TrEMBL record:
Source organism superkingdom: Bacteria
Keyword line: Membrane, Transmembrane, Transmembrane helix
Pfam family, one: FA_hydroxylase
GO biological process terms on file: lipid biosynthetic process
Organism, scientific name: Sphingopyxis fribergensis
Main location: membrane
Name of this chain's protein: Sterol desaturase
TM spans (from-to): 6-30, 51-70, 90-109, 162-180
GO molecular function, one term: oxidoreductase activity
Compartments, as annotated in UniProt: Membrane
Gene Ontology CC entries for this record: membrane
InterPro entries: Fatty_acid_hydroxylase, Sterol_Desaturase_Related
Residue ranges of domain Fatty acid hydroxylase in the record: 97-231
Length: 255
């Protein structure tokens, strides 16, 4: 039957996305335990829910990715290339930037759209049920939201030529930033976050503020759209949030 290779590719990609999530979130959760031992205390039920939604999202991400990967291998679909000479070398960083900027633009507008009250209840409240989010919340999305995220890269590979290694880098950045931005502490140095680069780049301190305020800071990688549209609400403050968590953890252990 001709459908089997497609099905196999979709299942394999689902497994890859799921395992990638478990390894990355697991590693960051472990780093959190070392750095802030009490930060996730009392959040065990929430974390189980985050893992459940994230693994469901892995299937939603894996299906289009698997179909496109199959089409690339079997029929030469997509503009993914493997020969380093196919484009000039300067195109490598340019393609990386093009993918990140396009993904960021898509994310900003779909995310902002999902904050409209009616749609929020259907599609986006699952992601905001994590209060505060943990490293396991990186893919904690309702299936509707997961679909909006899952189609981006599989669509872009048909439009913008990209070397397969740069595509791997795009996916790695997407995964690390997705996990890092939710883990409840900042992994980047203060000089970067509060310096000139931090005025344009999104890290955990920026996205945490989105989760704290339920509005504003809708971007993914860059603060460009938030600044251009007046939705940038500035950087969050982890120290206050950490103090609150310490008290919550104390209250839990007193019971
Ligand atoms: Zn949101
Ligand atoms: Zn988030």
């Amino acid at each position: 039957m001709t459908g089997w290779p497609i099905l196999f590719s979709a299942l394999a990609m689902t497994a890859i996305v799921g395992v990638r999530y478990l390894i990355t979130s697991g590693a960051f959760a472990f780093a959190t335990k070392l750095k802030h031992p009490r930060l996730y205390r009392g959040l065990e039920r929430q974390m189980r829910r985050e893992v459940g939604w994230s693994l469901a999202s892995a299937a939603i991400y894996g299906i289009p990715a698997g179909i496109v990967a199959w089409g690339w291998q079997a029929h030469g679909w997509t503009r993914i290339y493997t020969n380093w000479d196919a484009f000039p070398l300067w195109y490598l960083p340019l393609s990386l930037l093009a993918y990140l900027l396009t993904h960021d633009t898509w994310f900003y507008w779909t995310h902002r759209w999902m904050h409209r009250p009616q749609l929020f209840r259907i599609a986006h409240s699952v992601h905001h049920e994590s209060r505060p989010p943990t490293a396991w919340a990186a893919m904690s999305f309702h299936p509707v939201e997961a679909v909006t995220g899952a189609v981006v890269i599989p669509a872009l590979v048909f439009l913008i030529p990209i070397h397969v290694a740069v595509l791997g880098l795009v996916l790695a950045i997407m995964t690390v930033m997705g996990v890092g931005n939710h883990m409840g502490w900042e992994m980047f140095p203060r000089a970067l976050v509060h310096g000139p680069a931090g005025r344009w780049l999104i890290t955990a301190t920026h996205h945490e503020q989105h989760h704290a305020a339920y509005r504003g800071n809708y971007g993914l990688y860059f603060r460009f759209w938030d600044k251009a549209c007046g939705t940038d609400i500035g950087l969050g403050d982890f120290s206050a949030a950490h103090r609150r968590r310490e008290h919550a953890a104390d209250a839990c252990s007193d019971r």
